[in-house]
Amino acid sequence: MPEESSAAVEASSARPPEGPVRGLTVEHRTEPLGVDADHPRFGWHTRSATRGWRQGSYQILVARSTARLTAGRADVWDSGRVRSDDSVAVPYGGEPLRPSTRYHWSVAVWDAEGRRAGTATSAFETGLMSGDGVAGWDGAQWIGMKGKAPGSAGAPMLRKEEALKADGPRRVRAARLYLSALGVYEAHVNGEPVTVDQDGAPTLELLPPGWTNYDTRVDYLTYDITHLLHHASEVTLAVVLGNGWYNGRVSEGSTYHSKDGNALAVKAKLLIEYTDGTTQTVVTRTDDGWRATDTGPHRADDLYDGQTYDARRELTGWAAPGFDDTTWSDVERVAFEDRYPDVRLLAYPAESARFVDRWDRRPMSVTVATGVTGQDDSPGGRGRVVVDPARTVTDPAQAATAQVTLSAGETAVFDLGQNMVGVARYGVRGPTGARVDFRFGEMLNNDGVGADGPEGSLYRANLRSAEATSTYILKGDPKGETHQDTLTFYGFRYVSVTASETVTITRLTGKVATSALRETGTVTTNDPDVDQLASNIRWGQRGNYLWVPTDCPQRDERLGWTGDTQVFATTGLYNADAGAFLSHFQDTVVDSQRIYGADKAQYTGVAPGGRYNFPGGGSGWAACGVVLPWTVWQMTGDPTVVERNWPSMTRYLDWIRQQTGDTYAGQGSLTGDWLAPQKTSAQLMSDVYYGYSARLMASMARAIGRAAEAEEYERLFGNIKRAFIAKYLSTDGGRVTVRSSLGEASPIEPGSDPNQKTEDNSQSALLWVLKLGFYETEAQRRALVNQLADNIRNDAAHKEANPDSIRVRHAENTLSVGFLGVNVLAPVLTDEGRADLAYELLHQDALPSWLFSVRNGATTVWERWNSYSAEAGFGPVGMNSFNHYAYGAIMEWMYGYMAGIAPDPDGPGFKRFLLRPHPDPTGRITRVSATYESPYGEIRSAWEVEDEGRTLAYEAVVPANSEATLCLPAASADAVREGRTPLARVDGVRFLGHTDSVSSYRLPPGRYRLTTDLR
Q: What pTM did the predictor assign?
């Protein structure tokens, strides 16, 4: 437990401005609670106004109090002065850490010349550090309401009241609550909700403790609740349990899923330390005064269907001391460990999903409908809603605070202006027993194809079987009632409200919840459409990074699809501090491999759980188990994720080899290049992902000192390449052809034309061949680039030469890739000298394109290129999400190529990185500004075309203790200047050469304002 008073702990949140040493982290988090790592990793970065500043050495001290954070007095660990420029993931090397202990630490930094640069201090706190669910839990059990049938009406509410030992001079010094659930929980202490700190304010979480494969691992979270016990003589622990992922339809197909349902349970330990050094614990046990009921207001909850809350059943004061629970039921032990004796109970190692108030959304408009008209003259026969103009509010300023009174049979539709994920918070006034239904959706119906109701009503067909409804039954408080759901979540832009009696709706607000809490990157341009696309991508990530990276947040799916995850991971790590989040997901991917994977070796299509896994092959999705560790390592610079997952990754590659032997083919794929307009052989996509995985394995093996294995994987990659070329690369008639028609596309893709055939020289096939170098000569490479350019240009000559291609239906300068081609499209084009085509595709708004959705009103990225249009209506309803981030992987290119901030594979974590901006050859984007908070500090890259295209003004920031390779377009070697001085002659800058109208330099840390002559 903490050594300092809780007041001192709380005061740490009001720190003075950071000095030169800043950004201190433990396990990639700031002052984390509940660290279970035996050797936690320390990180920091340094800010210096001195150009060229580099760290020469550091010293880490760890102590049990701040008073001992001096050399010679540190009572836990003194690293000594270490000559190293390491500042990312430096492992703890002291005595074994104690559980439930607060540690203070400092790092002192010296520059390369031995001058002291500064010192900074921080803290972290260990968790229970056991993993078996026994040690450290002081006898805590999984408990639930006695006799409660899983899935029966009423959420279990459990409470326990106990006197504190505070008396006289002995006061509560610190209190920590360790809490987990089989299901999800809403927790209270002494009548107050348990919160976490977010942006310096107490914030509610949504659906803790998240989602895992429960038969392998359950997470617990740690809370500082000292402030709730400061002046108390008693403590009351209270929880509401919801079904969550554990006992809902989402768990179908999982080994822990039971057709009779799973009993919900809570496991908790409250550890209190007093000022005299004594301690007190309160735990969940069947013989310790815990009581339970299911008669409260939470009548039903489901992740897909929503929540029903009957305010008439509220039990005032139930979570506070003094409540009479004598009529409540006993609790019973839930025999979870008996069923899964090897399950691990581990501290959640990342930031929990929580609400972010600054992203709250208020209505942009409110439409009140009193009926339906015009069915007879409606093409779809559905008509249109009858709008009451007196109660309809179209001015956003007025709509934000509008009060709307509804009678039975009327509907109000609130437009929040942004597709988002979370819940609605609302006020309501009306009579006792009135029922109000809040239905959530992403779109409104038009009168076109696929609509499921009259024009202007809420479109919900794409939710499939998900009800996505918040039902509130009023208690009749004349002052009004306020509610927001706590046991479910929704994906929505629109909220449709109906009531059984006359009610008034007030203050409706969209409360945004996410695990992508700290955003680390920005990209802005002078093009509002491109900026809207970037916003859509960011909002899609916020919504789908919720405990696990999901595919969609609205329909009856919401799964951790591994293909979506791996193609978006680099974008996700640019946008947000998501390294710990994705590393935790990788642990879940490995758990799923062991439970559901073929031969316990193949990675699965989704994680957690067993739905939609592909025993017959899932290349591109299965490859997430290799691609994700490599991506996290490259973006964070921490090889731990590689080292920890190495046995799992090798097991997967060995398994493929066992399946396909010396053919060096991939294991096959049922998904292929998912939802691509132009079809590519699924087997070809499997083969390229086998090669890609082998190449990444070689890179990772070298990074963690496995030289022999690196050579093995390099040989494997070479064999895969030769087999691929022999099978797919044809040079008949002197023309290079990628035979991507050899085999069928995905046989399970919904909404696709069953008669559409795979095609040779498909965009995705050409892209991957170029990315992996699957050709033999430079002449072949040039021919392949030309083939790709012709396919994208798709002019009349190309259509005439390929009359049977799907491309004849599409406009010029359009993409035709799916999930497995989208993140390589623009990077490969740019690497191959065709940035002009990459920009043409970025600017395109005809179908298929990124801006097609923007032009059609999207505020997040869609699952399908053709999810909706005003002219054509809605896309295939069986698989049509309006918040699906996979196609948002273009933002990786926006950071790394358009703005030019790109990782250097030889300097993971941006220790060394590239500054390689590519101005827009089309001339439509003339200004770009990007920042990225790297592990070494903020990187900046900004350019603007001036003088009618003759000059490029460029600004860059290279953080201290890193270096950058700058590649700028320039007319000559001396055309790049800082002020009047050629950059090649600036002190500390190393000129690398001038080739193909690009000048290259090695830049030391510092700020740069440059100009380059483009003429």
A: 0.97
